[in-house]
């Protein structure tokens, strides 16, 4: 086994179209790292560069302590699991799994033993003599996994392996993959566009964004899931991680008083000065972007007395049983930055859809959910506010 | 199937579709019967004596004194008679021409099609276009130059220095089967490459990449993945090419020249009438015998037209 390291990796297609710029990250031996980001952010390209399926045009990629830029895919000692499974349709499950070992002239006995073992781990022993077309989607995905496992490679590369499964099976396979990683301990680089997959599976998660030129980097932040959620480094990461997404609004902070006040539109939240991030006090009076996660809200009746609150008119309530989403508006223009536009574009939308008021979503106790069209008092956990520069989008 | 999938499509209007749908099945059967009648006539006539053939149409046969008119003599005659060993010999010649002339182009074309589809090399597109555009060259026009090349080789005398370069050696191939193989191969390759390329380039990219990572090189990918997965298109082309080379008359006669003993069945049958003077009644039996082989080949290869050979490989 081995770690994988990216050193200022870049990729330019045909000398002009830039896909990747300046990505540097270290994946430790045995670590499970997830690359996540909207479509076109270069996550699959990065993975394919590690696999050797895409040329590396800038920087170095190392597997273990070997630079693999010019090493053929088969000599990189990696195994890849494809989104489409990519099984060999004319071979049985057994032959599919043994194919790579046969090509490497592994002794027959050992091939048989490894295939049996992998099949046992993945619980596909009963299907070994079937062809892929006689398997269900989940079983095919297991075969694709088995094909990677039997190779006993230095690292697994997985390109959205679960995205073709239906929702229920995806959740099941997700936890199985997690268990498998715990058991095998093989370094894994995992690509997904699904932030839930990213957050639940990764030891660390790297959030990527599309780049226009070499002046920026695709890599926005790499951190443990909780860190990513609690301390996003910029608007893009903050808006991408979390569902429903973080609410953004133009605000100003008056840090002079105690408590300090955070004002936006008609609302003013009182916050203990030491609960605000350092640097916010320096921006006192300036317009900045306030970020509030839906989870930071609660209905007054559920929250009990105390805390800073705001009175709003509820537009819509989505009752999910386990929780309720409350939608309301704040009469200030919506936040528009390059990051926000990139996030909207990924949803197939643009800034026009935002309207001219700022929309908020709050996640509240389902038993206390208010009715649509009524006023409600929402308590805000002011220790969980996020502040961003309104020009650069960087966290303050 | 074609009618159904065309419903509402851009190519076929709703009215046309409704009209086609309204044609009853028996109308199709009627067409089948009409199309089969000439062949049936040929078959019946091949069992009738020369006199019967000349005096009445084949449809009289079932009603007239067939004990007298029907005979197997036509078949025994063509199989045994003749200075060149009868039709047996010619049928074997046909096979000796058609089998290599089918296998050789498939072998070359499959390699070429894979390379054009999946190996990235400089000038790939232009070379492919050039190869396919060779389809436009008519065989009839190139036969004599080819014949000269086979017999006398190709030589280029450079001006001024009076030096002669040999571009193609004098192999004296005329009259031998290999000259026919080479010619058939040459004319088949552009189409074969085009057809196989279309299929092979449509195979899912992921399984090639997966095989690369598994440790396969191009050669192994070709043999272990491309060939097994391309069986339907290989079989389709094999049938085409076999029928074409088996039924060919022009190239065989041109390349094999006057030597009648190595003529294929097509040429022998054409010669029957003349060789026996008044023996054109044997043509029916000859035609039938020579049809038998292609039919066998067709049904033997038909089982390779598997649909859904890629099922289960990738999820589209």
Description:
- The complex is a heterodimer of chains A (396) and B (316).
- The two termini of chain A are 39 Å apart.
- A six-stranded mixed β-sheet of chain A has the order 6-7-8-3-9-10, with helices on both faces. A five-stranded antiparallel β-sheet of chain A has the order 13-12-11-14-20. In chain A, strands 15-19-16-17-18 form a five-stranded antiparallel β-sheet.
- Chain A is elongated and about 75 Å long.
- Chain A has helices spanning 43-51, 93-103, 108-122, 137-150, 167-184, 195-201, 225-230, 235-240, 300-303, 338-346, and strands at 4-13, 17-27, 32-36, 58-63, 66-67, 78-81, 155-159, 187-192, 204-208, 219-223, 247-254, 260-264, 267-271, 287-292, 297-299, 308-319, 324-330, 358-364, 375-380, 385-388.
- The longest helix of chain A is centred in the middle third of the chain and has 18 residues, at 167-184.
- In chain A, a hairpin with a 4-residue loop joins strand 16 (308-319) and strand 17 (324-330).
- With 396 residues, chain A is an alpha+beta fold.
- Chain B is mainly α and 316 residues long.
- Chain B folds into two domains: 1-71, no CATH class; 74-313, MetI-like (MetI-like fold, Orthogonal Bundle).
- Chain B has a two-stranded antiparallel ribbon with strand order 1-2.
- The interface between A and B is medium-sized, with 32 and 26 residues.
Number of strands of chain A: 20
How much of the polypeptide of chain B forms β-strand, as a percent range?
A: under 5%
Low-pLDDT segments of chain A: none
Write down the CATH topology of the largest domain in chain B.
MetI-like fold
The total of beta strands of chain B comes to 2
**CATH C-level category of the largest domain in chain B:** Mainly Alpha
The main sheet of chain B orders its strands as 1-2
Distance linking N and C termini of chain A: 39 Å
Broad shape of chain A: elongated
Number of domains of chain B: 2
What is the string of SSEs of chain B from the N terminus onward? HHHHHHHHHEEHHHHHHH
